[in-house]
Write a structure and sequence with these properties.
It comes from Paraglaciecola polaris LMG 21857. The chain is of the alpha/beta class. The chain is built from eight helices and eleven strands.
């Protein structure tokens, strides 16, 4: 009995030390070398992608360093809401209700989602109703367009990465997946599947606004007005549109 109590006490001490280490690590990450650092994150697939360029441009406007850590979207969102990340791009506003996420208005871009299918099954997705008979690859915890988000009869297969969606479709384990065309097509080509995986006949007409967001629980929340000024200046100067155009032009040239 005494040995068990001793082991229990040791376990508590070890967990306490891990907790303290995590807090201290977070502190030093935020205040690296005495200088405040913006903490953000993107998918590991796109650590050199478009969102990274957006984030670095915002940091440049603020004359601050930025640390960008790769992690899946669901974890990214959780860490952001807890204040372990300060800044995110690529979020839709789901409601006017204020929570841990501060949306900087106006939105920095408006995008439409795209469905992909195997070429031999292109006739199986002709309209929205067809989706109810198909299994659909989606990004875990992501939001798409309103009708899709509210439909309860859809068979959704949540995954962490775009590559997983493509692999599942290639193997026939899902019937379609939804993603942005501009980022999906280059990866499909890179994987040599451009003749096998194609755009579906049905595509949504709805467009979605995407926002730069700040965590209400971020230690940098006192700089909220500076974040807002940086984003609004970049929007007014058409910097997001320019970065996006140049990014996808360079991808087309590389292929």
């Amino acid at each position: 009995m005494g040995d068990n109590n001793g082991l229990f006490f040791v376990g508590l001490v070890m967990r306490f030390h891990v907790l303290i280490f995590t807090v201290v690590l977070g502190f030093f990450s935020t205040f690296s070398s005495g200088q405040e650092v913006i903490r953000s994150s993107v998918s590991k697939e796109f650590i050199h992608g478009l969102q990274v360029k957006y984030l670095k441009n915002i940091a440049k406007h603020m004359n601050m360093e930025i640390e960008i850590i790769p992690m899946p979207f669901a974890r990214r969102l959780r860490e952001f809401r807890h204040g372990n990340l300060d800044l995110m791009v690529g979020l839709q506003r789901e409601s006017e209700k204020q929570d841990e996420v501060i949306y900087i208005t106006p939105s920095y871009e408006t995008l439409r989602h795209t469905f992909f299918v195997r070429k031999e099954n292109i006739d199986k997705l002709q309209n929205f109703t067809d989706l109810k008979t198909l299994s659909i690859g989606v990004t875990r915890n992501a939001k798409y367009f309103e009708r899709f988000n509210q439909e309860s009869d859809l068979i959704m297969v949540p995954v962490s990465t775009l590559r997983q969606k493509i692999e599942l479709l290639k193997k026939g384990r899902i019937n379609t997946f939804i993603h942005f065309q501009e980022s999906a097509l280059p990866l499909i080509i890179e994987m040599g599947l451009q003749n096998d995986i194609v755009l579906a006949e049905y595509q949504p007409i709805e467009v979605n606004n995407y926002y730069v967001t700040i965590s209400q629980n971020s230690p940098l929340i006192g700089k909220k007005h500076l974040f807002e000024s940086a984003v609004r200046d970049a929007i007014a100067n058409h910097e997001f549109a320019t970065i996006r155009r140049e990014h996808y032009a360079s991808q087309r040239d590389s292929h």
